[in-house]
Amino acid sequence: MQTTSPTPHVLTSARKRVVLISVLLSTLAFPLTITGASLALPGIRTGLDASLVSTQWVVNAYNACFAAFLVLSGALADVLGKRRVFLGGAGLFCASGVLSALAPGILVLDASRALAGVGAAAALTGGSAILSEVFDGPARARAFGALGTVLGAGTAFGPTAAGLLVDLAGWRAVFAVPAAVAGAVVLLGPSFPPSPGAAGRKVDWAGAALFTTALLLLVTVLVEGPERGFGSPAVLGAAAAAAVAAAPLLDLPLLANRRFLAFALAAGAIMAVLVPLLVYLPTYLIAVAGLEPGRAGVWLLMLTVPTVALPAVGTALAKRLPAGVPVTGAVLLSGAGAALLTGMGPDSAPLALLAPFALVGAGAGLTNGLLDGLAVGSVARDRAGTAAGLFNTVRITSETVAIAAAGAVLAALTGGGLSGSGATGAMHTVALALGGAAAVAAVCVTVLLRPRR
């Protein structure tokens, strides 16, 4: 029986292709279910007779659990084996997607979405680590480039696909289709190479529990605060508990790796700009600008198409330039695009939004997959699972907190919804804050990547 992890030359080309296809398929399902849930919220609220706050948890429960379990699943991948964690995560994602599609009420749907986030975390972390193990050299760069392209495709065309699913089959189809994709991944499992875990390595369960608790409490504060009041005893208590529990499962040697930390910070900053805009811009375009949902989806292609069109460009630039140049430049592009949205208004024409939308999308597109490969490649191979988990934790936690924070600002400034005369000003405030945060992140990335003297 094989007792060591396979090296890149052990597998045949055919089996490597199966591994790559499986990881790419699972990766495609995650952005589809995020954007799909956002577009399905009106139908969910009506169909399940749910409140606004409870429907917000359809998105936030998934994102929060996705972020909270990334480090834990990365550690488990190193201990139990990458294949087990990847396929187990895909299986859980599939089962929870089926439960979401069949949910009889909002509480069941929210709970199943939380489980889906756990499964997605395990599959994403295990998948990235498997690619790092199976492929090497230029082949690894191409594999992670394909990963970035698929992530970009899911982000770019997810809103359009989800809108069509909702129109054709109702909101439940938004959860059923990604579940079917994950089921296909599980069926490909026997083709995966053995991947035993590292002997003697342990998981910090207490740290994982504290990190998960802290993140969920923080999101709870941001989601519930506008409705209950940020000064209410319940919200203040949750904030205090989050502060006490903020002892996350962190791999300190990885945080001491300046290059790894820089790439993780850059990824978090870019996603913290892109994803909140993907969540809230459709509502603004429909409710304030008066667009039909289909037309709003077409306009959003200006934002999302660059995410799928530019990963190859980013990879090519990284081969010719120091890593800090394209990485920092991408963060600045995203921030500049967000800041330019302060010129957006109810009567804005598509061409007036082309530059800000395209800049935000370009920042994400130039680094999709590239940052994953740079981050995981900056650590030893036997730490790949933990590195992938921590990297994705920073990225997903950043977008999760940004979504909840942007929603809190919009709710506070508009009285609970993106409508009325204050909606445009509220969107401008959010856009300016996102742009400023990206600028600060770009400075930090530059400092971290600067060679020590």
TrEMBL record:
PROSITE patterns: MFS (PS50850). It is a multi-pass membrane protein. The chain crosses the membrane at residues 18-41, 61-80, 85-108, 114-131, 143-165, 171-193, 205-223, 229-250, 262-286, 298-318, 325-345, 351-380, 401-420, 426-449. It comes from the Bacteria. InterPro entries: MFS, MFS_dom, MFS_trans_sf, Tet-R_TetA/multi-R_MdtG-like. Keywords: Membrane, Transmembrane, Transmembrane helix. Residues 19-453 form the Major facilitator superfamily (MFS) profile domain. It is found in: Cell membrane. This is MFS transporter. It comes from Nocardiopsis suaedae.
